[in-house]
Amino acid sequence: MAHSVELIFDPVGDDAIQRIWRSLAAAGLPSQVHVKSDTNRPHVTLVAARQISADVDDDLRALAPALPLQCVVGAPVVFPGPRQTLARLIVPSAELLALHATVFALCRPHIDGEAFAHCRPGHWTAHATLGRRFTAVQIGAALALDEDGLHADITARLVGLRRWDGDNRVDHLLISGAD
After folding, report:
1. Range of 148's domain?
2. Residues 114, 118, 13, 85: what is their CA dihedral angle, to the nearest 10 degrees?
3. What is the Cα–Cα distance from 93 to 158, expressed in whole angstroms?
């Protein structure tokens, strides 16, 4: 199971993304709202790998002064495949890209094998997932929803950092995000 290091939103961003999840579900479309887990919440994955050791946690906690980061949740984006993923882009500020590169460098010695290619600096697309396993027809239906939340920019802050242990299905909150 995958492990990851993720940024978490302030209440404004969290609520806005969850409203989109609920709108998709209400329209009968795939949505992250259907993920039944106490740890399911909107987030931005910085690094993902087969395994990331907890030995990195103290190094990551030291990044607390870098947060919060202002962010703009931008346009919808589709990640292709037989079953597609619908997400919202996170507009990549210089600060966000620098934080991503730092987190990647800190995690690299603690990764079993290699980090997944899509999260390496220069290949990473900052995003918040809305739903997975869409068909092409469902993507069209989602993008056609008359829902401001799906299309309007959202100004929010990235306030916390967690490490997800997919093997044990536990998140470890490293930077709380408390204002």
Report:
1. 3-175
2. -120
3. 12
